[in-house]
Design brief:
Blueprint: E1 17-19, H1 21-26, E2 32-36, H2 47-61, E3 70-73, H3 77-89, E4 93-98, H4 103-111, E5 115-119, H5 132-149, E6 152-153, H6 161-177, E7 184-188, H7 193-202, E8 208-214, E9 252-256, H8 258-272, H9 278-291, E10 299-303
Parallel strand pairs: 2-10, 3-4, 3-6, 4-5, 7-8, 7-10, 8-9
Antiparallel strand pairs: 1-2
Length: 319
């Protein structure tokens, strides 16, 4: 990166790709794991990419007028990216989020100038674990507020800008940085934007792409759905259909427990100095399993989806 950037928005993308040689040696794996450090972007998550693409496309098309408010449902990461992009471009932003998400996320969005609406969880839900029922309540409130405020809905679960940001950015960056050596890619499924966009790029290049679901909430793979509660925030909502995955051919699915995600997030921090969150740990756990099975001897790429700083109040870093 050279010269002076006109705004922090231009710092979104072009993140480093790191070879996890220490973890692979520690676990005696045959193959390589390459980690894309998207937690180093301005909003500390991969969602900055989709936030930028959606807002820039809406402004260009006229769907988003100057100074018009923007509203979005979020677990915190998309909201943070939108707070940054909207703040720079002059749009008021409102984030609608379940109270079950970690409080660091709401505090960060408010610090960035966003209005944050916290929605109570569904009956029986636990704090720190956001279910599909919780997200449905958030969606209903986001729809109501969008009409009430005359706002533009960013709608990360449906707008093409989400997967396009990863098809045109994340995946080509990984391919170029690795010298075209990647043989597999896996990612924890939230909105499906990252997985869908990367799969469209990697598929024609012979890269096997895998989706990751929480153990016991494996609805997309048709697996076990008996224990939908999990601490991996930002995904695993038990939704049977995700528009961004429609027509996508995956090589398979991996399921990861909350305990496995925690263990592997800690491995990243202690062996590689990479401070990621739960989904980053889930991605690493799945990559390890792939190198122990169908992808043995290959090169698996993963994302460090967000920063561990967003989980200091959770069990992730509790001794």
């Amino acid at each position: 990166m050279n010269g002076v950037l006109p705004s922090v928005i231009e710092a979104i993308g072009d993140t480093p790709l790191v070879d996890l040689t220490r973890i692979c040696a520690h676990l005696r794996l045959e193959g390589r794991i390459l980690a894309k450090l998207d937690y180093l972007m301005p909003g500390f998550s991969k969602k900055d990419r989709a936030a930028r693409r959606i807002i820039e496309e809406a402004r260009a098309s006229g769907d988003l007028a100057d100074r018009q408010a923007v509203i979005e449902l979020t677990s915190g990461n998309m909201g943070t990216g939108l707070a940054i992009v909207c703040g720079v471009l002059g749009h008021p932003f409102m984030a609608v989020m379940s109270v079950g998400n970690s409080p660091e996320r709401a505090r960060m969005m408010r610090a960035l100038g966003a209005e944050v609406v916290l929605v109570p969880q569904a009956k029986g839900s636990r704090k720190g674990e956001v279910s599909g029922d919780d997200l449905a309540l958030v969606e209903a409130e986001a729809q109501r507020l969008t009409i009430e405020r005359g706002a533009f809905r960013a709608d990360q679960f449906n707008r093409d800008g989400n997967p396009e940001a990863h098809h045109d950015g994340t995946a080509p960056e990984i391919w170029q940085q690795s010298g075209g050596q990647v043989t597999a890619f896996c990612d924890f499924i939230g909105s499906g934007g990252t997985l869908g966009g990367c799969a469209r790029f990697f598929g024609p290049r012979g890269v096997n792409v895998y989706g990751i679901e929480p153990e016991g909430a494996e609805v997309l793979s048709g697996g076990d759905t008996s224990k939908p509660e999990h601490p991996i925030q930002g995904g695993g909502y038990m939704w049977e259909e995700l528009p961004h995955l429609k027509g996508i051919n995956l090589a398979g699915f991996e399921s990861v427990s909350g305990a496995e995600a925690m263990q592997h997030a800690r491995l990243l921090a202690r062996h590689e100095g990479i401070f990621g969150g739960y989904s980053s740990g889930a991605n690493l756990a799945a990559a390890v399993r792939l190198l122990q099975g169908p992808e043995v001897g290959g090169t698996v790429a993963i994302l460090i989806c967000d920063s561990g700083l967003k989980y200091l109040s959770t069990d992730l870093w509790r001794e």
